[in-house]
Amino acid sequence: MANDREILREIWEGKLPVCFQLDPNEVSELQQPDPFFLMVPRLSYFPLVTDKVRKHFSRYVDPEKQEQEMWLEYDGQPVKWHFPIGVVFDLYVGSDIQLPWNITVHFDKFPESQIFRFSTKEIVEAHFMACIKEADFLKHRGQVVSSMQKKDHNQLWVGLQNDKFDQFWAVNRKLMEAPSDQDHFKYIPFRLYMDDGYKQKLIKPITEDGRRKTLHDLITEIFPNQPNVKIRTHGMVPPMETPIQWMSEHLSYPDNFLHLCLQV
Amino acid sequence: MDSMHLSMSWDTFLKDIKEMKAHSDSIDDDWLLNQGRNHEYGAYLSKKLVNCFSTSLSTDTPEKSDSLITFDYHVVYNPSYGCPVLCFNAWEMNGSLLTIEQCWKQFNLANFDYKYHTLTQMEHPVLMKPFITLHPCKTTELVQLFANSKNVVVSWLSTVGPVVGLNISSHYAKLTN
């Protein structure tokens, strides 16, 4: 069970300074808007923290475009904001870190074939809950989520949205318990990011003979021929001998997945 | 079928979609079998279909008018749930993608709260792009009902397809028994 509270806290409190700037081609006023600075939680999602960014920039764009859905760009790529913020950062910025993180804001030409439309908070919530359900299906065949009440689901979401650690973990701890007859999950919910996508696979936390699998074991199951890769998550490089059951309990994002970025 | 978890194995999925593709060719239906590169579960079926809708989909023209919508349906394997997934994107004639709100309206889900856990955008497991997806979380239960079918994908697809405007010809029924 996830019992190392200090680590859970530390992970929860991870934040990134971001500098948002409106695409100069979309400024329709004579005066350029000031950039907008924000400290954002790594565990949150951009659509949950950018209301103020929208408000700050919208009056500088063509009035006809002010109501269009805002989107974000980093380094020429639309930001995949259905990933948690920390995942986007580890994935796009990696080890060559320069802070604040410069992100360009757009109101025009939404890249609808590339990124999700999050027109309301309910849609972000639906995405988040779908991830939690999938993770619980991997860990407990979906039995914990389905035994919860709607208010528990709501508490997870509101806890994340309002940055309330205790509120979130009061419910999330149930999702992090191993089944009563075992001390580990059925499979480890994880995504291993590389190139332009990620890999998912059914990986058990223990070997056939009952040994706890490590991060190294997980990587070897996915890349049998490349044992020497490094993994980044929450901005750090965890040791390869870390047991994946422990990682799943302590280093998962609120969506209950481990998001592991391959370092090249 | 994997009797341990009552989910569908990748091999069964692959067999089922290959049978479906072969049958599609024999009756001149338009299903395509695609293969994503460097992907363990990369094979999937797809079919493009033009539907004519008599209701107005756009929000700024309240009066009813006929509009032609192109649907691109995909049948993909979800390794987490061990089940098939039906997803699609749909375009208006001007090339703009239908939004989820337009799809909810079209498929009579707009007034129900369960729309949020029935039909939303999800990532296509092979193409890694947003597709409007029938949620897989209930599919495993549905798939169990077809334990006796010789082609679970066909049985499942003919059941759930009509929810999102995809009707499977009864010719495919012979694959199931």
UniProtKB/TrEMBL annotation, chain A:
Keywords: Acetylation, Apoptosis, Autophagy, Cytoplasm, Immunity, Isopeptide bond, Membrane, Ubl conjugation
Pfam families assigned: ATG5_HBR, ATG5_UblA, ATG5_UblB
GO biological process: apoptotic process; autophagosome assembly; autophagy of mitochondrion; cellular response to nitrogen starvation; immune system process; negative regulation of programmed cell death; piecemeal microautophagy of the nucleus
Taxonomy, superkingdom: Eukaryota
GO cellular component labels: Atg12-Atg5-Atg16 complex; autophagosome; mitochondria-associated endoplasmic reticulum membrane contact site; phagophore; phagophore assembly site membrane
Molecular function via GO: Atg8-family ligase activity
Boundaries of every Autophagy protein ATG5 UblA domain copy: 11-107
Ranges of residues in domain Autophagy protein ATG5 UblB: 187-262
Location relative to the cell: Cytoplasm; Preautophagosomal structure membrane
InterPro entries: Atg5 (IPR007239), ATG5_HBR (IPR048940), Atg5_HR (IPR042526), ATG5_UblA (IPR048939), Atg5_UblA_dom_sf (IPR042527), ATG5_UblB (IPR048318)
Annotated Autophagy protein ATG5 alpha-helical bundle region domain residues: 122-177
Membrane topology listed for this record: Peripheral membrane protein
TM spans (from-to): none
Annotated signal peptide: none
Function: Involved in autophagic vesicle formation.
Record text on subunit structure and interactions: Forms a conjugate with ATG12. Part of the minor complex composed of 4 sets of ATG12-ATG5 and ATG16L1 (400 kDa); this complex interacts with ATG3 leading to disruption of ATG7 interaction and promotion of ATG8-like proteins lipidation. Forms an 800-kDa complex composed of ATG12-ATG5 and ATG16L2. The ATG12-ATG5 conjugate interacts with RAB33A; this interaction is bridged by ATG16L1 and promotes ATG12-ATG5-ATG16L1 complex recruitment to phagophores. Interacts with TECPR1; the interaction is direct and does not take place when ATG16L1 is associated with the ATG5-ATG12 conjugate.
Family: Belongs to the ATG5 family.
Name of the protein in question: Autophagy protein 5
Lineage, opening ranks: Eukaryota, Metazoa, Ecdysozoa, Arthropoda, Hexapoda
From TrEMBL, chain B:
GO cellular component: cytosol
Listed Pfam families: Autophagy_act_C
Keyword Disulfide bond: no
Keywords recorded for this protein, A-Z: Autophagy, Transferase, Ubl conjugation pathway
GO BP term, example: protein modification by small protein conjugation
GO molecular function: Atg12 conjugating enzyme activity
The keyword Iron is assigned to this record: no
InterPro entries in the cross-refs: Atg3/Atg10
Stated family: Belongs to the ATG10 family.
Protein name: Ubiquitin-like-conjugating enzyme ATG10
Organism: Pyrocoelia pectoralis
